[in-house]
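note to self: the first set is below, dont mix up w the second
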Amino acid sequence: MQLIEINKARYRKHLNRVIAGCGVGLAVGSLAISQTLIALFPDESGSHFHWNLIGVAITSVGLAWLLHKYRTHTFMTEVVYVWELKKALNKITRKMAKLKAAGREGNADALLAIHYSYAGSRLLWQLDDNLITMDDLAIKQAELESVAAQHNVTLNVEDYDASILKQF
């Protein structure tokens, strides 16, 4: 997955609409389904927890289906890209201890994966206005570049491929 520049204003606007739409859809859908089930199958004890739970579950599945169906729509381009980037970064994060150990030994693939993680994190944090941790990231990036220079490894984020994680 290549890192690309995202229009921050468009991304935030579309993400907010998706979140609001999902929230409203979940509230309305689950209430409509659960109230229909309660009307059709009333419980003498007054406990309708299971009908409410079924309403939430059915609505959640419906929303997931809609998000999956429309993930290729142009409105969803930035939102889906960020979701996929977060998924890619999570795969790296789960292997970060092994990557850092291999990176200290000069493994070019490990150094490249860490470099990609830092660059991707920087992009996400800028999109989410999470600038507090940028200083820590800059320190880690400088340390990574120092290790790469010691082992004569050139790091280019465009060279990253997720398949290199299989070896760790």
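second set (the one i keep forgetting abt)
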Amino acid sequence: MEATFVLYPNMTALDFVGPFEVLGSVPIVTTRFVAATLDPVTSDNGLTVVPTDTFSSLKSTDIVVVPGSGHWRELLRDSGGVVEWLREIHPTTKWTTSVCTGSTLLAEAGLVSKATTHWAAREDLEVRGVEVSTDRVVFDGKVVSGAGVSAGIDMALRLVEAEFGEMVAQAVQVGIEYDPQPPRAYDSIPPEIAQGLKAAFDSSQS
């Protein structure tokens, strides 16, 4: 089985590195990295990744993982070919997935009806006609979305469970020693803190 990770400038590294570690831990899964060109792609915090394929060369794959970005509204205005490629590749996939604001790209491509995303981007899903969930992982047919950043690990583990069974998913989780105990969620923090965070994220999009 082949898992392909979408790369584009200013993506968030953990959005794809987390699922990469999870899916790459399954022996029968091979991994690829696809981008507009074969030039190295740099994340929003400076991690550089070299693609193995381009949007024009990769015509089918089993799993697609779309990371998000802290600059998601800029990306929605000009996705650099990501949205068009997602529309083309989606009919060939067994699973099309996203992490964080990557779900807004799936929504822009018209591929999802219910999804989760980073709390700062919920409105961007709503305006694209998507039913927004606050769950950490959401299955919408063959489309699977994970909420903000670290939720990509949870999404990938749920995907491994769906594809290979609970025992394999448990083995992978123990193998990467992932024991999630998040102390806070956006909807549980004091309103004044939530409003400040939301204002900061909104201002970063202008």
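remember for set 2: The chain has a mean pLDDT of 93.
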